[in-house]
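Final paragraph of the annual report: two paired records, presented back to back.
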Amino acid sequence: MLEGIVTKAIRRSNRTLLALSVVGILAVLALVALNTRYFYNFILGPAPVTADEVTGYTGAGQPQRYWVTVTGEEVYDTGIQYVNQESGKETVENSYLALVQNDRLLLVKVPGEAVEQTTFTGWLAEMSDDEYREIVQSIETDQPELTGVFLPFMLETGNFRLNGILGIVIGLGVLAACVVGLVKGIRRSGDPNEHPIARRLARLGPVDFVISRIEGEMTSNHLTLGKAHLTANWLVFAPGSDLQAARFEDIAWIYKHVTTYRTYGIPVSKRFVAKVFDRFGGQMTIEAGNKESKADELVRAIYERAPWALAGFTPDLEKAWKKDRTAFLDAVEQRRKAAANPDAALNR
């Protein structure tokens, strides 16, 4: 037996949820795997290293323990700082020092002003092109005897664990959301009635019966406007992996909604949708794209099939729908009775 539009939407939604959940879990695990060296140091903390060990490194990526505590014989202020100027105020973001390691110099980047100390804790990092050019090459130009003395990496001090803490919090949040999504996808695949689409349809009656009625009418010739289907008794909107439906007899209020997008106060585009409300409190927002004529055609087609519904938007109607729904629906019911027996309405 061929699957109908409701069953297909539920299955497609479940597949999408499961796929996104699995991809999310794999992405988090992959990020952890790609950063095992960082988390290894994050967990173990800074390792004390000697000058001999530091000068023996060929690059910042060589040692497994690259979050280190280094002590030098002397420290020199290079006099070079990165200064941020904002609103006429200068703030020193970083200062650069040269720490003596045997017969070599280790460039040390410290936040804020330079400090007078010979022990630093930080992580070994590669110099940026700007740092190498503006600091190391500048010093070597002014003092040729220091050419080749600087180690090919630097020590960057600061909060080593901050990015890790943020990453762990975000990663755990994503992982938890993906696990929940995976569990939901599995449960909904085993019991389609647990799916939000089925739950929305449940307000209209027994789910299996409602789905059979919708899918039965969808096989007959009917009007289709975009992703909206208008069958003999049903309005069905099926965008992507979602599906919403309402019986025409239950529709209480319809109107066209326009959203205007502006750039620097100048309108650049508009988005049109049809808003449909039923007597159970359900709401459908049916996309009509950027053409107003399509939205007008859709609203008109729905109203032709539910002429008792209140049409158009006013603040008073919105207030009544939100604050006094019973009176709103009573007015719709009176219009329904009048539409069903026009002669009685004329004789009043």
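The closing record of the year follows.
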Amino acid sequence: MKLSDFDYELPLDRIAQIPSEPRDAARLLVDCGRSAGSLRVEHRQVHDLPDYLRAGDLLVVNDTKVIPGRLRLQRSSGGAVEVLLLDPLTPTSTRWTALVRPGGRLREGEVLHHAQSGTEVIFHGRAEESDSFIVELCFTGDILELLNKIGEIPLPPYITSALPSSDRYQTVYSRRPASAAAPTAGLHFTARLLQTLSDRGIEIAHVELVVGLDTFQPIQVEDPLDHKMHTEFYSVSEHVMEQVDKAQRVIAVGTTAVRSLESAIARDELSGRTNLFIHRGFDWQAVDMMMTNFHLPRTTLLLMIDAFIGDRWRDIYATALESGYRFLSLGDAMLLDRHATEGP
């Protein structure tokens, strides 16, 4: 396996800069397998999803919420520093792992300042065995309340336009604020679409995977299997696992919902930290179908898609590019079926 096996050309103008309105108006490329060697797909919209599911199916969503964890700070010299909070290290959430720019130039113990609020942040150097750093927020109150005042919702670096509202980078069913990025396949759902699915006998289950560093980490080694996955917190309730066992089919909304379910089974633990790396040859236990956005080349997310439907992903991505689909976090979606027929 080579990293080049998971590469493709993504023109910049295909990277969505604004979300579809309404949410479920985004396009949906439906994977129908292959017949006589040719790819079979249908071009629909997300609000058509109920046409492809049936009573007895289970739709699983990741209900994590993005924290306003991007902090724009200053050094005593006046130089700008940007901090992106990833994971709290203490019960009081004062120490965090974080991405820091320019982290390599800061001194351990250096105090950074938020100009408007006067809040101080101490830089504690590089985290052990990690590409991230450790920072400490000098604040004794509710940290989330502080972040809501001084932080920003962190958008991926390839999105250069401001969103009309920060709510558009949250799912309508988000619950616990914890993640550094949104589970973006879920951004397409509206309350009305969820109600339509429920009315048709499709159960909806919630899991949690706190989206962290790997979302921002491209694979940088020639053999993708040498890539080191960072751990992320996940939680799946016993009730959800019972629903999975009883469901006719399990449809995961996004790669993070996939990792939650498959981690709970592979690790035989309903919650904890997972570094599960899903790639070709993976023994699927829970997920039958996956609704997901189109991913960056050379990423672990694309390796997961390859593990799910094989090299058919190449034809699907080529068709999507030819057909004008919008890619990445704010783009369109696809509905993948690992049981779809691969005809001769």
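Helices lie at 143-150, 191-199, 238-246, 255-266, 300-309, 312-322. This concludes the annual technical report; the extension proposal builds directly on these records.
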